Amino acid sequence: MAIVRQKGDILYIQWYDPLTKKTQSKSTHLVANTKNKREAKKIAAMFQEALTKKTEEMKAIGIQRVSIKDAFEHLLRNNQNKHPKTIKDYMRFYKKFTEYFDENLPCTSLTKIGVEEWLNEIKKLPFAQNTIHGYGKSLNHFMNFLFEYNYTPMFKINKEVKTKPEIKEKIILSDPHISLIFENLDRKNSNFRTVINLLFFTGLRPTDLLTISCDRVDIDKRIIRYYSPKRKKYREIAFHKDLVKILSERIEEVGEGKIIDYKTAEQMGSAIYRFMKQIGLNGQGYSARTFRKTFITLCRSRYNMDASIVRELVGHEHGNTTDRYYNRIGIKQMRKELKKFKRPQ
Asked: Are residues 130 and 74 in the same domain?
């Protein structure tokens, strides 16, 4: 029940919020006297009527009283099979989100204005635009999850407040830089040489390479079998003839187990960054992923390789129904197209 309370010379409306389970108060800005007390009681009555109506509406649509923390843990349980990087992105977002919002408050405390204010504050951080956009995407996932489970009433975030991605220039390795990279590989260990060759001649993701084991490489038939964490699929592809020698030597050295001796894609990326710096290619924007972009660009733009086969080689989803459901691209077709691919000298 909303009641009138006096604090100093000012009259306040005080009420119990069943959703937050806390007593709240709000100033009427009226000076305490007999006339204003009658006016304040009318305000309290109207306020209580509105509060009761809102509570009944929320109950009618099934809004549940769940804390922000409980809802986020529910989100993680539902997404436990997502890629570890996605989970890290969620955790990074939640840490920043709960610097602004108390995680013990109910989800119903998240309002349109409050969430938009958080987004506006996030955009002021000294981070790259795509990093900021990463927080924005995680927020969208979290809020949609809250709406789906009726943890809070639905609202729409203003499109001008939403974060936006930065469209960056597509960076690929230039021919002279490709030559420089391979000229300097001789002084590196076999693990690193194998990584660079696999990245360049297959266009696979770094996370894909980490799943390749010695027993899943068929040198005679030039086949690599691996598990794609991104696509959550076991895949089989042909590999380029220029990989035969280095893979044979690496398998002979390793014997069994994983062919690449890095625990994470981040470790692999750091090693490539250090190498680029050593040979004077720092500041070019090159990373482990640049090899994938380079492979695809060379295949399509320089060597005019079949688009469907290139997608199959690098593990992209096929864009049309024919290729996705009816056209089975075999190892023989892949090997034939790979003959067109040559490393720039």
From this structure: yes
